[in-house]
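Annex B.
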Amino acid sequence: MALTGKLSVEAPIQTPPAKYFNIFITQFHDFHSICERIHEGEIHEGDDWHVTDSVKNWTINIDGKPIKLKEKMEKIEKANKSITYKFFDGDISKNYKVFEFLLQVIEQNDGSASCKITIEYEKINENVEAPYGFLEFFDKCLKDIDSHLLKA
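Bet v I/Major latex protein domain-containing protein: predicted structure tokens.
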């Protein structure tokens, strides 16, 4: 069994792609009030939620259980509407040495759009399952964000 892997989920969005992407770089601090499975978030290091050198503490719900972890934006690419994140420390480090994910808002030629999350991970040993609970978490959050923006 491999210790490293990649999983992805893609959700269609009805929100205009630029507006959908923009919430991740301007309103990340509000996600605990937008996404049902995010219980709380606070800055751990730095003073701005939307820059690559800030570290945030999160409590999220994975498989019905609260999980505490830290998150850092590694790279923001506005031109292709993508952001690379890293999860580390806390509960996630009990199972994964590496946990990074790429968020990308994708515009189709027919005018439709979607948001795709790709998780890259390295498990601490072969007994750890792939992070399917995190995939479900991201899928739900992507839909919660779209619903929130459509109401705004």
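The chain has one domain: 4-151. Residues 132-151 form the longest helix (20 residues). Further annotation is deferred to the next reporting cycle.
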